[in-house]
Amino acid sequence: MRRFNPQWYNEFGTWLEYSESKDAVFCLHCYLFNCEHGYRRGGRDSFVGEGLSNWKEKQRLLKHVGNVGSIHKLCFNAAKDLMNQNQHIDTVMSNISDKAKQDYRICLNGSIRCIRYLIRQGLPFRGHDETNASMNQGNFLELVKFLCESNEEVNNVSLNNAPENLKMIAPSIQKDITHVVASLVTRAIISDIGDNFFSILVDEARDISMKEQMAIVLRYVNCNDDIIEHFLGLVHVLDTTASSLKESIELISAKNGMSLTKIRGQGYDGASNMSGQFRGLKSLILNENNSAYYVHCFSHQLQLAQ
């Protein structure tokens, strides 16, 4: 035999694929799932790499299938599961009992309550030693334990009473919830400002890791004629030149749907990169918006007076 035999489709089933351009046969299932089941550790099977083009070696097709525990069978089952509607995530989730869903919500809400408290109080989350033998595992874990001691409903589904993968206390979970809270707070601030004018207060400093951080505060008058100041965010900047700071302000403004044309006031310290007459941050913004009047930060003025 000098060419591919189409009858092999009937003999070997859906896994066999023939490439006219390469004049070779391949295993579809192993091609899709080989990295999950071992070819990456032991070299690549010819049915995944160059394909089989020696039409006299039909026995290699049978050898490739192998026994029950072969890599091909594992890949075949993975493909079968992919096509099985009962394996889809929405189906699996719908099969979870209402009790399990309720337990998950209680556990998650417990972690959210602890995180909201720490954020409101401006307290750090992590501890120096968070092992089970530690006398103090950090504010977050200690607060979760305190909540469990005072709330039986939370205690029944949290920490040691929760599945290992659903404790809702991992550092990544803490960060995810914190980012969601920050997003909701920022959205509320921007909504409160609406289409009104506002002022910006900006200062930059180097943190303990020697990275330059720029803090941005918004000052505006709300619908009740109250003067409001809200912290918008902390932005890492590559350098402290006026152009770099302005670019960062533009990026965070665009991200939150704000326009620099709405700025009616700027408040910075007296450093040349901030308040310089020609190349300072205040001048760069004034060049685009001549209504963004600059006011030297009163706190920095008091420091200069000492």
How would you portray this structure in words?
The protein has three domains: 8-86, no CATH class; 97-176, no CATH class; 194-305, Nucleotidyltransferase, domain 5 (2-Layer Sandwich), CATH 3.30.420.40. The mean pLDDT is 84. It has a five-stranded mixed β-sheet with strand order 5-4-3-6-7. A two-stranded antiparallel ribbon has the order 1-2. The chain has helices at residues 8-12, 28-33, 59-65, 71-83, 89-95, 98-121, 139-150, 152-155, 171-193, 242-255, 272-275, 281-288, 298-305, and strands at 16-19, 24-27, 198-206, 212-221, 227-236, 263-268, 293-296. It has 13 helices and seven strands. The chain is 44% helix and 15% strand. The longest helix has 24 residues, at 98-121. By secondary structure, it is of the alpha/beta class. The protein starts with 7 loop residues before the first helix and ends with a helix.
Summarize the structure.
It comes from Acacia crassicarpa. The protein has helices spanning 8-12, 28-33, 59-65, 71-83, 89-95, 98-121, 139-150, 152-155, 171-193, 242-255, 272-275, 281-288, 298-305, and strands spanning 16-19, 24-27, 198-206, 212-221, 227-236, 263-268, 293-296.
Question: What characteristics describe this protein?
Answer:
two-stranded antiparallel ribbon, five-stranded mixed sheet, 7 strands, Nucleotidyltransferase, domain 5, elongated, alpha/beta, 306 residues, 3 domains, Znf_TTF
